[in-house]
Design a protein that fits this description.
The two termini are about 20 Å apart. The chain has a single domain, classed as Winged helix-like DNA-binding domain superfamily/Winged helix DNA-binding domain (Arc Repressor Mutant, subunit A). It is an alpha+beta fold. About 45% of the residues lie in helices and about 20% in strands.
């Protein structure tokens, strides 16, 4: 059984609701399906997928926001927007230090997704 939780998000808040262990063991409940759909929406944008890949490939280290604009050829404001979507989906965390923002992957979130999507071959 995994610890996947559905996150009902307002602008900045999160409520955790337990999810089923995997897609093949039980039908998804509404809170879990909503959470999973939000994650897929976050990863469904090519820019966000690339940004998530950049941060994930740097794990366990962090990536400064100042190093994300050039690889994806987007303005810092656009990158900030996309990183906010990934953060609200629970895939990354951020920490502001002075004027710089640093991003890290949330390994447990990716493990939860792996377990939830564990389909038989």
């Amino acid at each position: 059984m995994n610890s996947m939780t559905a996150r009902r998000s307002g602008p900045r808040s999160t409520i955790d609701v337990p999810c089923e262990p995997s897609l093949t063991e039980a039908p998804l409940g509404e809170p879990c399906a909503s959470d999973l759909a939000a994650v897929f929406r976050a990863l469904g944008d090519p820019i966000r997928l690339r940004l998530c890949s950049i941060v994930t490939s740097a794990a366990p280290d962090e990536v400064c926001a100042c190093n994300l604009s050039i690889p994806v050829d987007r303005s810092p404001a656009t990158v900030s927007h996309h990183m906010g979507v990934l953060r609200r989906a629970g895939l990354i965390t951020s920490e502001k230090r002075g004027t710089l923002v640093f991003y890290r992957v949330v390994p447990s979130r990716f493990q939860e997704l792996r377990e939830l999507l564990d389909l038989p071959e």
